[in-house]
Description:
The chain has helices at 9-20, 24-33, 38-46, 65-77, 87-98, 101-113, 189-192, 232-268, 280-308, 314-338, 350-358, 367-378; strands at residues 118-122, 138-142, 145-156, 163-169, 182-188, 197-201, 210-221, 225-226, 270-271, 274-275. It is α+β, with helices and mostly antiparallel strands.
Amino acid sequence: xxxxxxxxxxxxxxxxxxxxxxxxxxxxxxxxxxxxxxxxxxxxxxxxxxxxxxxxxxxxxxxxxxxxxxxxxxxxxxxxxxxxxxxxxxxxxxxxxxxxxxxxxxxxxxxxxxxxxxxxxxxxxxxxxxxxxxxxxxxxxxxxxxxxxxxxxxxxxxxxxxxxxxxxxxxxxxxxxxxxxxxxxxxxxxxxxxxxxxxxxxxxxxxxxxxxxxxxxxxxxxxxxxxxxxxxxxxxxxxxxxxxxxxxxxxxxxxxxxxxxxxxxxxxxxxxxxxxxxxxxxxxxxxxxxxxxxxxxxxxxxxxxxxxxxxxxxxxxxxxxxxxxxxxxxxxxxxxxxxxxxxxxxxxxxxxxxxxxxxxxxxxxxxxxxxxxxxxxxxxxxxxx
Length: 385
């Protein structure tokens, strides 16, 4: 596939060089064992790529979400899975934008050096689902501590993180604003697990470490409250725009991987005396997926540009995530379909990447929520939920 001038050439070259040290066989073996790509994440950390968003004063690169998205794109474009480590990119932003000076000085340099991992965020609950304002996990202050009780579900990378951002209710839900009474805490998982926090892994379709969490009088120091009590929902939303832009970039990376893979195969695979890529029934779906991918990529960079400029970008971030997830899924379908039976063979890596990119139709925000957001906040239609 011909590549246009993509920009950020130095970052792309650096990440591609690192990824080249971890060939498809590495990720294939990790997937087969349902293991965590520890060596890969360590290499990314040592090279400083996971500290991209941390300001230079704390030992990071001080780059923007645009550059962070390019890093994550290149990981997926090389055949890897940035889902193993992308949490550190956007979870750290909650601490950076809303943490106290003491909290930032205490944690950010260690995160930048790789001494601490902040890979996990505890928001979703079984009964609430995507209705975050309906969460029931409580944090009640007792002197210099908060006691946390409740349950979370689909909380990723807990077993491979030292710290977790936690959203809990510090005041009952009232008749006023639904988002009131929610607060953000920084949980030290090294101290919490087994001392009020129980982690139960969830086996799932993708090699994506995710868990149920059970809180039973977990004690959190009051100093671990991030920002002001009761304003946590706004803090979370602030970070979700970055999350969606970065996830969009990962889908873009997946999409280009699928397009590269299937165009090469379709040009070489000969059936009935001609390359299958000569047939319009093969060629057109691939071309359609590529066109959609290019359009999604433009929206991704627009969302990143607005975020980095400190401008409102909720609409663009949501649309970028939706378009990119949809485009990568169309590319994945074409790639699997035109590989025929070989698409299901683990050695071709198509089925692994197919499963990985399918996740983003559902998480971290479902397509229905994005469409509802656009319907209400952009088109002015009545609120659906």
